[in-house]
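User: Fold this; C-alpha cells only.

Assistant: Input:
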Amino acid sequence: MIESTINSIFPTPIYMSKLDRALTPLELKFVDKSKKDFYKNDGNITSNNNYILNEKPFTNIKKELDKRVQDYFNKVLSTTDAVTPYITQSWLNYTETNQYHHKHAHPNSLVSGVFYINCHEEFDKIKFFKEEYKTITPEIKDWNLWNSGSWWFQVKTGDIIMFPSSLTHMVENKEGTNTRISLAFNVFIKGTIGNNKNLTELIL
C-alpha cells in the first residue's frame, strides 16, 4: 500500500455559527409582517426592505450578527490594517415547497452571510459551486473535496453561515412542507488598507 499525504492550500472559508436562542414573539411577528411586502425573485420571494437589519425589531439580531462578522474577520482575514467590517444590505427570503433560489453570487460585497430563521434540518441546505475552467472532465468514481464542482451543507433553524461574496451558491428545489425563511446580508469594510509608502493605500 502506498503511503501518501494530500494537503489542501488556499481553501475557501465557510464560516458556521448559530444563534443560541429562539426568536422572540416580536421578532417572529416582524418576519411574518415583512412577508406581505415582497417582490418575486427568481424562484422564490424576497422582502422589499433590503435594509431589514436596520429595523427596530431586529436590533438584537443585528448585534448578534455583528459579533459573528467581527469573528469571521478576526479568524479569516486576520489583518493588522485599521479596518472595521460592517453589514451593508440585508433582506429576508421566503421559499415554499418546490420553490428555489437561483444560482448567484453577491457583487459589491466582501463577505456574505445567511441566518436561518426557519428551516427543516432534513430537507434544507445551501449549495456552493467551484466556478473555474476544467481542462478535462473525467467520470468520477468517488466524489471528494478536490474533484467536486459543488458542495452542499445541511442547515437548521438558528444556523449562521458566512462566506466570500464571490462564491456562487443556490438553493435547490425545496422539499418538505415548511416555509424556508432566511435572512441574507452583505458585509464590506471601512477604514484604511494597504501601505502609503508601497503605494497600496486605500481609504474606505
